[in-house]
Amino acid sequence: MNAPRLPGRIEDWPLARLRPYARNAKTHDADQVAKIAASMAEFGWTVPVLVAADGELIAGHGRILAAAQLGLSEAPVIVLGHLTEAQRRAYRIADNKLTELGQWDEALLLGELRGLMAADFDLGLIGIPEDELDALLHDAYDRAPIDDDAADTIPEAPAEPITHPGDIWALGDHRLICGDATDPSVVARLMDGAQAALMFTSPPYAQQRDYGAAKEKVGDWDALMQGVLAAAPVTADAQLLVNLGLVHRDGEWIPYWDGWVDWMRAQGWRRFGWYVWDQGPGLPGDWNGRLAPSHEFIFHFNRQPRKPNKTVGSRTRRSKASTRAKPSAAVGCAGPTARSIARPATATRSRAIASPTACSASCATRAGWARPDRTRPCFQWRWSRRCWRPSPIPAT
Q: Tell me, which GO biological process terms does this entry list (predicted)?
């Protein structure tokens, strides 16, 4: 076997000097080219294209298409002038097929993915299809099913618990405390002097069920709500959203929130909005003959009036994104009787939870993903793996 020939040098050629191979069997659809372009914008041009002396491409057709989409004028090339025409035709196939023969060690791959997720790296840039990525991550967290009785059983406390009451976990820009969300001192310690511009909480729905050890607190629902919200560390212009669901007693639903809403108004909170959270298709009916509900309510309060913004102008033709309500990453605290999250006004907005409509153009420019003519970005925001992530838009 002859010793492999090493490339003499890498040259920069204008794209106009390069010619695609007319019978190239490897196809590149618009979605793949957009993903290659996004990868090149993130990592740089890391692999030169391979060409014949006359400029005909041997390997790298997808990268050249992506370069044109990014508005680049030159490409790094390696000239394989020593290959015969037959060798060039064979290598075009071998260059693609040989890489397909490799296998993945899924345990090691999963470890790498978890490391990237912990670093808040956009997994959309690594080339794994989203459905395959979701399946891989989902399978890793599969647990054996347990029945309701087992799920409600309170386990014995471990001899050496990992987290103790009062411990605060730093999750990037966010903080999570082990404590009671109804205790003002716990919330104050979590916020560390900061005030929240937005608070979203999902408390128990009246006396909906037996809350066990927390029954004493939840037994007086109005007192629970008043105690939590009176001590909420929020700014004067904060937005407060409370998720509540229907509760039925004696065959009819009850407006158990009426007294609490009146109390909120007496404290200066305005009934700014009342939203319906669509939870998908409901069942035909329940055991009492009612149509089974497939929704819950979101009560929106604030202290200051805000001008309605019914039409949001778009600076780009393709920067529109879904505004359907979804969970957002935020600072939070959890306890036995209430769940709440609040985002400090001073927190730095991370890329994963940036507003999908407001910053698509600016983020595209900052990331180098804007199209050459700047008329529209080459990515759109999509809800994926519990946060907003940029996803390439195929060129049209």
A: DNA restriction-modification system; methylation
What is the pLDDT, as a whole number, of residue 359?
A: 38
Helix axes 130-140, 106-118, angle to 10 degrees: 100
Residue pair 235/196 in contact (Cβ under 8 Å)? The answer is yes
For the domain made up of 174-280+292-305+325-347, give the CATH fold. Rossmann fold (3.40.50)
Nearest to 51 by CA among 76, 86, 74: 76
Backbone φ and ψ for 24, nearest 5 degrees, come out as -65, 120
Residue for token digits 């394989």? Answer: 80
Q: How far apart are CA 191 and CA 169, in angstroms?
A: 12
| 360 contacts 350 by C-beta, under 8 angstroms | no
Angle between helices 30-43 and 61-70 (to 10 degrees): 70
Residue 12 CA to residue 14 CA, distance in Å, equals 7
Q: Please give the CATH topology (third level) of the domain spanning 11-100.
A: 3.90.1530
Distances in Å between the Cα of 296 and the Cα atoms of 79, 260, 274, 282, 291 are: 64, 17, 11, 12, 14
* 68/66 Cα distance (integer angstroms): 5
Q: Answer yes or no: same fold for 11-100 and 174-280+292-305+325-347.
A: no
Q: How many CB atoms lie within 10 A of CB 129?
A: 10
Structure confidence at residue 166 (pLDDT): 92
- Quick one: pLDDT at residue 160? 87
pLDDT at position 396 is 52
Q: Would the CA dihedral through 126, 131, 135, 141 be positive or negative?
A: positive
Amino acid in position 104: W
- Residue found by looking up tokens 């997994």 in the block: 123
| Confidence (pLDDT) at 12 | 94
Task: Report mean pLDDT in 10-residue bins for the chain, 396 residues.
Answer: 73 94 91 92 93 94 94 94 92 90 88 87 87 74 60 80 91 89 89 92 73 59 87 91 86 88 94 88 60 85 77 50 38 36 37 36 38 46 55 57
Buried b / exposed e along 279-293 (16+ C-beta atoms within 10 A): eeeeeeeeeeeeeee
Neighbours of 96 (CB within 10 A): 13
Domain coordinates in residue numbering, the chain? 11-100, 174-280+292-305+325-347
pLDDT for 72 = 94
pLDDT of residue 96: 87
